[in-house]
Amino acid sequence: GRNLGAIISQYCNRTARLRRRSSRPPLQQLCRAARPSLRQYDLETDPTRATLEEKRRLLVKELLSLSPSQCSHMLLTMPLSLAEKRILRAPVQAPAPLLSPFSSPQGCRGLWYRLLSLLRTAQPWHYALKQIGGRFGSSVLCYFLFLKTLLMLNFFSFFILLAFVVVMQAVYPPASVSPQPFTGLELLTGAGYFTHSLLYYGYYSNVTLNEPCTSSPKGSVCPLAVPLLPYNLPLAYLFSVGVSFLVTCILLVYSVSRSFRESVGSSTGDLAIKVFCAWDFKVIQRRSVKLQCENICTQLKELLVEQRSRSHTQSRCQCLGHCIVVLLAWVLALASVSGCVLAVHYFSEHMHMQQAQGSGRWQQEAILLVLPLVVSLLNALMPHLYNLLAMWEKQDSPVTQVYVAVIRNLTLKTMVLILLCYQWLSRGVTCSTEECWETCVGQDLYRFMVMDFIFTLLDTLFGELIWRLILEKRLKTKQRPEFDIARNVLELIYGQTLTWLGILFAPLLPAVQMLKLLLLFYIKKTSLMRNCQSPSKPWQASRMSTMFITLLCFPSFLGAAAFLSYTIWSVQPSETCGPFRGLETIYKSGKSWVLVLEKSNPNITWFTWFYQHLLENTSLLFFMSVALIAVIYFNIQVVRGRQRVICLLQEQIANEGEDKVFLIQTLHSVYKQRHR
């Protein structure tokens, strides 16, 4: 023990020295004969005789002369009780007179920090995501963060297509076609009233706005005032799709690199950090305090389960038996995938024959819904079979279980989509002769998206709500169904792949996907809060989020980009409708636009050279692809290097701890020998 008055006197003198240091003028402003005045030091006659109240009053006076940050730091470092600090803080934090926030640099900085915190809280679903992470952990939270990322990607694609294609076509509509009456069934089939609308490829025309010369029977007629730059709708259509894919690629690469960066390191030392350093003392609201308590408890459970799974060992016989079971489960999974692909192929051929025979309108639209219904039914039922195989395998780590489920579901969906893409490009779609085959492909993709959304709602209703009611009312148990992360994330990736595949054939498909994602967020959140329980095996999802965004980037986005690239470069478009009618390939529209551009304005021939030598040059595309792959490769290598450095530092810390234990034991033995 030190006396309370001595501590207050010591910090009073320290605060006075800090105030003099901050208020004293610099030496360059003093003349050579100047000396410090004794009146600056506020000398006390006898500070040791001052009472405790006087010392406290002097300390409060000195604290009031400091800046708010220095005052709070000084109060934080004082070795006093919390009750004494509250007594000192009360007069210091008394309400000051109202001043303009721009009257001092500290006020401007505080206003800037308040604006930043306001922007952070104004992010979409800020409190909802915190609530989900606190109750169910990071493993369930990664699904909703992934959904938010997909919503952002679709927003950028939709904005680009809306600004440069959809709005221009809406302002200058083509020749009117007698629209079909709206019956409501179009919301499911995408046909009928929606066929000749801005939703599909066939509605868009191949006109050039501000065209300098118009053809006539007597020859071409050019106005006197030549417009600066004609607006070619086919080229705007093509470039908008390309720019939206380029922006999406940049955002995906950035998300993958950031996710790799955040997943670096190990969780062996995080337990002590969570125990001693996880609490945020700025949280004062009761709801936020409860949410933070739940969040920290869930994170501690995740860390403990992860460490326990690492320490689990098996014998050789157990490992051999487990490997045989895993091999048989994979054989069954791959056989089921092959069976589903063959069933979809033969069923699609049968539906094509039924459509070719002809029937009534209602029967035709019903036939159009059968194939998406079968594919969505397979996508909804097969994950439950894979869950049974996972229960048979009995994986110890929940992360490994999610990895296996993701790979099996992804294999099924990828093979089915490859089969459908082959049928679409080989003109194996059910389509009438009056429509573009591109419009029919867009309608098929729209129906697949709608059916996928309907089956997601049915799975949420029967798989979570009805099952919870059965467990509570019939079986009289408090157990609830768990949120299937792998299946739900794969449904998001599947829906986003359909959107990217159809962005050329249905420019407004990103808007449909955005609406679907918004509804899914609120439906899944409500069902999660009311029907589901926390995972029985909590686990950290730092590396799982990296895997999800990587799967979205490489199999999904890369496959859709390859499909659209082949369509643009090699497939002949429809001859009677669409913006690229009469061309050999969609890519030829660029050359025709360059010829129009040269005729319209000879002063911008540099753009023609830029198009011919840079955009049409395949070597440039090759070098850009190599550069992108090199950036990704070097980023992965940097991440691996950081992981090695972290492992070495952790080994060094462990060795230092062992050295300290050895030295302490040696000292104890020396002291025991001396005592003897």
TrEMBL record:
The organism's place on the tree of life at top rank: Eukaryota
GO CC annotations, alphabetized: plasma membrane
Keyword Transmembrane carried by entry: yes
Subcellular location field: Membrane
Membrane topology category: Multi-pass membrane protein
Regions crossing the membrane: 140-172, 235-254, 319-347, 367-390, 498-523, 544-569, 619-636
UniProtKB keywords: Membrane, Transmembrane, Transmembrane helix
Residue intervals of the TMC domain: 436-542
Molecular function per GO: mechanosensitive monoatomic ion channel activity
Pfam families assigned: TMC
Family the UniProt entry places it in: Belongs to the TMC family.
Identification of the protein by name: Transmembrane channel-like protein
Gene assigned in the entry: Tmc6
